[in-house]
Model the fold of this input.
Amino acid sequence: MRSAARSRRAAGVGLAVLTAVGGLVACGSSSSGGGSGPASASQAAGGGTYTIWDPYPQYDKSSEWVKLLETCGTQAGVKVERTGYDTSDLTNKALLAAQQGNSPDVLIVDNPVVSTLAEAGVLTTTEENKLDVSAIAPNLLAAGQSGGKTYGVPIGANTLALYYNKEVLKKAGVDVASVKDWASLTAALEKVKASGKKGITFSAIGTEEGSFQFLPWFWGSGANLTKLDSPEGVSAVALWTDWLRKGYAPNSVINNTQTTSWQEFAGGDYAFAENGTWQLANAKKAGFGYGIIPIPGKDGGTAPAPTGGEFVSIPVQSDTARYATSQKLVTCLTSTDNSLTTTTTLSYIAPTEAVQAKQVAASPELQVWVDAVKAAKGRTSDDLGTKYPKISEPMWGAVQAALSGSKSPQEAMAAAQSAAASATQ
Done:
């Protein structure tokens, strides 16, 4: 039963908060899906129609994803009515539906949005609905936690790594095995530039995409989002700034999205590109030999990259009898048996070791992505919750200021920390 307090909290969270979280920077689609609204909350449980909203409008009724949804509905003894929305539309519609007491039965949302919806009283907890998350990797589960409670089950994850062009590195005399930290990566970029080719491309655009791509370097320095202007955090901005100043990275990164950055790499002149799992199919079509390595930490090891991907959650309903069937739907969608189909369809790495092993057995090239996901962390982890977007925006602004030369890395991050501290008080 939705309490009056929960209703007031949902009504009190503006749509701008959700929009600030950013789009699905990993693999979202810009198209919108159609479909009907959620079924009436007064429908009896144990039959009838159950609604599912997801951020995958690119998948139609003939896709493996929608077929899985329908199969799960059949197994639960109900008809599934699915609507696919663009990510930004979905989060806004989810909040509006909660305000109107008309939420879908199952909601699949981008992981940074979970804490916002949870704190607004929109979502139930996994404990309330007896959803088993014991096999889920803790670092992935953390993205859906707020105030010590878990508000959904990750359907899969993706993250970032470095793609490299084998031909470009060979011409430059670079052994990719030597790239183990920032110093050795920078040395490799220097050799590539000297050979007449281009170094590295990435996305530093002034949106959540820019923060998403900057975070592996920020976290890889040992920095924490609660202290943007720490020496470690400043060193990460300085690394990127130095790359631009020395011509190891192009000035275009300031405006690059992950898509345009990939297009630069696909041209064949760049040694490295920071990008995600979702580019694997494009990499195979690139026409040159490529490989993938984890993003290195400042002093070695794999840098923690942010996790992309969604959580399957159960929104608050006034008719609590519906929860039992919703639980069956979520359990079906996230079960070990179905996870391989789901993650393969969505180009994700599974959230459990058992299914990750199956993925690697079928496609050995996914091992580097499994390793990267194991080292990854949620953007709202460290109990940041709804504070994250208020930190992310000044952070990407600082990166833009430093790369454009309008501020030094130290000045840029000091200003960002001041803005973030004020916004999160």
